[in-house]
Each structure stands twice: as C-alpha cells, then as structure tokens.
Amino acid sequence: MKLALRSTRWPLLGICLCVVGVRFWLIGTYGNPVPFWDQWDAEATAIYLPWTEGTLEWRSWFAAHNEHRIFWTRALGLLELRLNGGIWDPLFQMTVTALLHGLALLVFLDSLRRELPDSALRPLLFRAAVRWTATFFDAWISHPEWLVLELIRDACRDQPRSVAANHCRVM
Length: 171
Description:
The chain is an all-alpha fold. The chain has helices spanning 9-30, 39-53, 58-62, 71-83, 90-115, 118-125, 144-158; strands at 64-65, 68-69. It has a two-stranded antiparallel sheet with strand order 1-2. The protein is elongated. The N and C termini lie far apart (44 Å). The relative contact order is 0.13. The model is unreliable at 128-135 (pLDDT under 50).
C-alpha cells in the first residue's frame, strides 16, 4: 500500500510519538521508583504479595478499592511485574502506561482519520485557536481515565460542537 506524504497518517503518527516522547521525558525527569500512595495496598498487598506466596484468589481481582473496582489496573500491574522478572518497578509501570496511552491515541486518531476526510480532520488536529480547556492546579487523581471520560461526556453534552484539546505544562 502506497502512503502519500499528504496523507494525515504521518502527522497522526508524529503526534502520538511526541506524546510518548514527552511522557518518557517526564518519567525520566520526575519519575520516582518508590510506589505511590494507593499502590501499596491496591497492588502490593492485594495482588503482588498473594501472587508471590501462591495465595492469590480470584475475588482479589474484583475486590473494591476505595469507591471502585480496579480489575484492569491490577491485571496490568501483575503483567508488568511478570514482564519485569518479578521486580516491582513503578518506573517500568509508567513506561508501559506511556506506551499504552500512545497506542490508544494512535488507534483513536486513526479511527477518526478513517471516518473523516482529510479536509475535515486537519482543522480538528491543527487548529490555531483552542476554545475549551480545563486547568487543574492542585488536583491529584489516582485513575485519570475516569476524569477524561467524564470531561468528554460533559463537553459533548454542554457543547456538542466543541473540539477538545489537551495541554500539560510542567512547572
């Protein structure tokens, strides 16, 4: 299959690689190998320790953690633990998550590319004016995927013609 340079596929791949690259830079600059807050009980106590002792029960996968159930977080964490030779390394977890987010972004943008003509997609991706943004100065969120889904739902409900943009500034 021939790929024309005028296609939006190359810029989409470039966007995803930039996102992953920035995430890698953030991990390398600000990452900490010490597990953070809920990781101690949600991952170490609930999954890793019973797994290494051979006492992990199926109920542990679906057990409540605070106000939600984090099956996929636990499953990914155990997979990362096994891939890393049984060593629990939050920096490795951050790296895997950065790659997964880049892949998810690529799949999402490619699905948009397939559904929309280039003339409609380019202004969405490369718009000079950003109209709707959200800024969090002091928020820490343990599972940001829920916040993103809520933001998308609220934006679609309140502003059906809006275009979303994400901005991150490290201070």
